């Protein structure tokens, strides 16, 4: 959720409502305090979601593609990841030690990098099941997979709420389970059943939207909801069988609010990232709007004088809003300007790199007509690379349209720019300025009087 993503989503949301999109505001943009987060890994300029999740869950920056371990652990160093001194505590753990309820909600697999940052310790983010570990030529007894950690790690065993996708990583490959979910685990373990059993029968399990909506959340203390075999559907693809992020967030807050001592909840709109990787910008914007609706619901269900809400992103992406399109021009469509090289229009949204390169560029024999006052187009000996006229592409503005990218890649990469932080509630004024990403949980623990003594504002104020 880069800053350009938020801007484009604001316009997209407004245009959907028939407004002047540029003058629209997302709900999160109305929060009183805004800052910027520096997202780099301990060893990379541009981050992935594993090292960033570690930063904003534990307060410590980690190496690329590692989760919940210090920077002493390099990629695929499983033995080092098993060492207690290299394993990091998350803010969810601090909340549990303070007697608070805890939970995670995501539109990705619950074993994916961002939610896993709350409970897992691994030297590779892709070790989501023992099948993944073996496929990557590692030993599942040395490289403990994230799904297994969900029922073996103290923090995740004590979660009150787990919701998202990822049935395949939690279920054995012996047969189909729960609405036909096809498990992939080779150890025969049913992680869902094990997590439920560990709660001594006090847990509800749901795997459809209808089941979630019919659940009496006021009398539910523990809930696991797995709504897809892999990631949950994009909102624009959802046939109504899966709950929205707003619905999951609402149920989670109601359940966690049954704990009188308060709660910590992590909520992720994770498919914003996936749509960008596919350069399907319209889906990325729509997922951002869905995320914003979940934020609005969270604000409505809590007291802003009692609840700190912090919104940010793992990292950015390479999508830009470019050209000089006229006010009100469809944000997901073709811009209103022509280039001064090939005199063809271009989309307002585009990417620095990504797939579908051949949908927009082609090679053509060079001729005298290819010269302009600015010189040749991309010259390759006797050929030039030209652009197709995007006005003739029929599915522009469609939900699955893949936007142009300058450098061809199978998947678009992340962007390295700072991402925004929006905050509301007690101590939210701390989340301003340009911050290291790993201070987010430090400030949150300070505000909530949880965590190590040096981070605990109650002890700080008492000592003063």
From TrEMBL:
Its EC number is 3.1.3.1. SMART domains: alkPPc (SM00098). The keyword Hydrolase applies. PANTHER family: ALKALINE PHOSPHATASE, ALKALINE PHOSPHATASE-RELATED. Pfam families: Alk_phosphatase (PF00245). It is an enzyme of class 3 (hydrolase). Keywords: Hydrolase, Magnesium, Metal-binding, Zinc. Belongs to the alkaline phosphatase family. The gene is LOC101899668. It comes from Musca domestica (House fly). Its cofactor is Zn(2+); Mg(2+). It catalyses: a phosphate monoester + H2O = an alcohol + phosphate. This is Alkaline phosphatase. It comes from the Eukaryota.
């Amino acid at each position: 959720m880069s800053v350009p993503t938020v801007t484009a989503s604001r316009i997209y949301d407004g245009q959907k409502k028939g407004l002047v999109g540029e003058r629209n505001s997302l709900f999160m943009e109305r929060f009183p305090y805004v800052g910027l987060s520096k997202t780099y890994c301990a060893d990379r300029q541009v981050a992935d979601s594993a090292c960033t999740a570690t930063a904003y869950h534990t307060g410590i920056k980690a190496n690329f593609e590692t989760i919940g371990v210090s920077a002493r652990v390099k990629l695929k160093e499983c033995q080092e990841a098993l060492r207690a001194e290299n394993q990091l505590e998350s803010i969810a753990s601090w909340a549990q030690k303070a007697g608070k309820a805890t939970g995670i909600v995501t539109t990705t697999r619950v074993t994916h990098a961002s939610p896993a940052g709350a409970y897992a310790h691994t030297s590779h983010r892709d070790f989501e099941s023992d099948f993944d570990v073996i496929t990557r030529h590692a030993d599942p007894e040395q490289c403990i997979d994230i799904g297994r950690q969900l029922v073996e790690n103290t923090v995740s065993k004590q979660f009150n709420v787990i919701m998202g996708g990822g049935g395949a990583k939690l279920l054995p490959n012996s047969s189909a389970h729960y609405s036909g979910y096809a498990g992939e685990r080779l150890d025969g373990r049913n992680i869902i059943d094990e997590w439920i059993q560990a709660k001594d029968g006090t847990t509800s399990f749901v795997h459809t939207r209808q089941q979630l909506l019919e659940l009496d959340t006021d009398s539910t203390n523990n809930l696991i909801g797995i709504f897809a075999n892999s990631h949950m559907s994009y909102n624009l693809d959802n046939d109504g069988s899966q709950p929205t992020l707003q619905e999951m967030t609402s149920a989670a807050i109601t359940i966690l609010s049954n704990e009188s001592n308060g709660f910590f909840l992590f909520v992720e709109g994770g498919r914003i990232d996936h749509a960008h990787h596919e350069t399907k910008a319209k889906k990325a914007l729509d997922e951002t709007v869905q995320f914003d609706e979940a934020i609005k619901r969270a604000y409505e269900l809590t007291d802003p004088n009692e609840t700190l809400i912090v919104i940010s992103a793992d990292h950015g992406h390479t999508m830009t809003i470019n050209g000089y399109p006229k006010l009100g021009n469809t944000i997901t469509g073709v811009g209103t300007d022509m280039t001064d090289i090939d005199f063809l229009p271009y989309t307002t949204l585009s990417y620095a790199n990504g797939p579908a390169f051949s949908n927009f560029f082609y090679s053509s024999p060079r001729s005298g007509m290819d010269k302009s006052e600015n010189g040749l187009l991309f010259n390759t000996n006797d050929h030039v690379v030209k652009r197709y006229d995007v006005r003739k592409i029929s599915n522009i503005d469609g939900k699955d349209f893949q936007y142009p990218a300058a450098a061809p890649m199978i998947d678009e990469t992340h962007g390295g720019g700072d991402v925004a932080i929006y905050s509301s509630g007690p101590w939210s004024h701390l989340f301003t300025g340009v911050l290291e990403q790993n201070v987010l949980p430090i400030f949150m623990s300070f505000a909530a009087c949880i965590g190590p003594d040096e981070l605990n504002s109650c002890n700080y104020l008492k000592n003063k």
